[in-house]
Each structure stands twice: as C-alpha cells, then as structure tokens.
C-alpha cells in the first residue's frame, strides 16, 4: 500500500519533469534544424514557473474548472500506466481529459478559441480510433489489455505489429501537436488562429495545461515503448528514434487542413491496422 | 515566501513573451522587430517568444504613431495583458509621433495613451537596440 502510494506520488512529480526535459530537447533540436542556437534546456520550466506567477485571468469559472480536470485526467492516466493497468481504461481517461480541454475553450466566446476547439475535436476524432486499434492489435498478440502482460511477453511487439507502430506514429504526431497535424494549436510562433484552442487560457491555467501536455507526451511515448517492452534499453532506443523522427517531420512539413488530416489519417491508419491484423492472424 | 517571489521574478526575466503591435508604423520598425527572431539574432536563446495573443504576453512592443483610430485597439490590447507587464515603445514615431506628430489625426507617442516603460529610439530602430530595450525592460518585470 505504502509502496503504491510512493510510486503514485513519484510519477505525478517525476513525469512532468521528464516531459519538460523532452520538450526542452525538442526545442533545441528544432532550433538547430533552423540554424538557430535555441533556448536553454530548462526553458520549458522557466516558462511554466513564470506562468504560475502571472495574474489569474479567466473568461469564466468553467474554463478554470476544465483546466484542472484536464491535468487531473492526464495525471491519473499516467499513474495508471505506471501501475501497469488496463490500456483501454488509460485511453478513455486520457480522452476525457482531452475533451475537457476542448470544453474549456468552447466556454469562451472568442472566435479563435471556438475554431481552435472545433479543430481540437477533429484531431481527437482522428487519433482516438487509431489508439484503440493499436491497443486492439496488442490484445490480439498478447491476449490481454493489461500492460503487465505485455511486459511479461517474451519478444518485442514491434516484430509482430510493425504497421501498428506506424499507426501509433500518426496518433503521436497529432498528440504532440506536430506539423502537419498542428491544426488546433502549435508550439511554434503564432498561427492563423492566434493560439487556437489555448487562446483564452492564460497565466496559471496555461501553465497547468502545459504540464498536462507533458503528462500526455510521456504517456504516448510510454505507449511507444510498449512495442519493445522486453528490455528497457530497446524501449528507450525505440522511443528516442521515434521522437527524433517526429521532430524531423515537424520541421519538414507544412500545416495541413483538417479535411486532409481526417481523410489521410483514417485511411492510412485503418488500412495499416487491418493489414497488420490480417497478417497477425495468418502467421 | 519572499524566496518564492524572488524565484518567480527571476523566471520572468528568463521567459519574456512578446506581443508586437503595429500602431500605424511604416513597417520599417516592424521588419526590425521580426529580424530579432531570425537566426542572425535568435532571441529564443533568451526564452523570448513572439506570441500573437495579448493574454499570453509579458511585454508589449509598440511601433508607429498612435492615432485616434488605433488608440482604442492599443488600450484594449494593453488591458487584455495579465500583470506583470511592460510596454516598450519603438522608433521615433512610437516615442513622440515622429515626423507625423503635427498631423491632424495623430495623437502622438505611445505614452499619450498607455504607460511606457522603455523607449527605443531610431528610425528605424536597430534590432540590437530593440533587444537592448527589451532587456532593459526585464529589470522592471
């Protein structure tokens, strides 16, 4: 009981630190791609601490409520991940958090916030089926939705589910807010919707959302690591390569429209999933 | 408590997010502001980001003369920024109205409408001078 509590507190405190470092490394590598020096590694932490010191400005009380719900759902899903719980349950808790972010943005009357929220909904609509398909693929292989079963499996899942790993890559790109899928809001500069879904969140609430985003980043990268769960070095290398590829894709591609995203991601995602599952049932 | 406040104010100087408002400038100063973001100056080294949203901004950069039309917008943007915030007026026009100061539609410099913390002279102001102005303003955050 006590060890469980310690583990839960440890991952609630430690995971945002990890997520912040990943974000810092991301910003430095992106800057190097653009022949800039880039910010210091700790820049994401400076930003968030500064945001917590800003004046609290909310459009209405529901916006603040939604920001708290988003971070709560994101942290609960990561705690469940570290407890090697049920993958489907983790996905649904994470989805609830993502929806609260949208509801918070919709509670403001700003057109930028509204359009951003609609685009965020379309992004959720694009990646959630893919995540479920990935989890179903894992179920077909290991015969369980539990993460601890995957860790007990004696060979890396990527050998049997290579196409589903690519499908997870699509979901990862959307979830990390990377081009060409950074429709609702973007990390870089400002876009056609000012800051999209985050436009009306400010100060400490923006800080909360940033931390929740770090939780989600670690969660999705954790899902990637499950594809090489037999030893942690393999998992780490797989995640590192995937993340570097994400940064490269982010830097070489332009932002696309939501119609293209929905069509392309569903067509590619579902086709690759079906091919992989058929192959899995044949061998 | 004082330790936390000092810590947060130190973080403020490490992460100033800019909002750039063109208050009827000739675009000379605007190009110089944007030049700060290019690889040559790369202000993101100091955590400076150009945000398009007053609700996320810490520093308001204003270029150009204030006239009776856009002073409302300027005041609105200033009021939308959460505290603590500073205002940097850039270029001869932003400081005093410049060569347009006697025009019938011109109110004058930015400080006629909102409180200005730092004045960056020049026509147009050099990117180095703008970065210098922002850094001078950070001590007031």
Radius of gyration of chain B: 15 Å
In DSSP terms (H or I, runs of 4 or more residues), the helix count of chain B works out at 5
Summarize the main sheet of chain A: none
Shape of chain A: globular
**Would you tell me the structural class of the helices and strands of chain A?**
mainly alpha
Protein architecture, described:
The complex is a heterodimer of chains A (283) and B (141). With 283 residues, chain A is mainly alpha-helical. Helix content of chain A is 72%, strand content 0%. Chain A has one domain (2-282). The radius of gyration of chain A is 19 Å and the shape is globular. Chain B has one domain (19-138): Rossmann fold (3-Layer(aba) Sandwich). Chain B has helices at 2-14, 28-35, 71-80, 91-96, 127-138, and strands spanning 17-22, 49-50, 59-63, 66-67, 86-90, 106-108, 118-120. In chain B, strands 2-1-3-5-7 form a five-stranded parallel sheet. A two-stranded antiparallel ribbon of chain B has the order 4-6.
Quick summary:
The complex is a heterodimer of chains A (283) and B (141). By secondary structure, chain A is mainly alpha-helical.
Characteristics of this structure?
A: 283 residues; mainly alpha; globular; B: 141 residues; alpha/beta; Rossmann fold; five-stranded parallel β-sheet; 5 helices
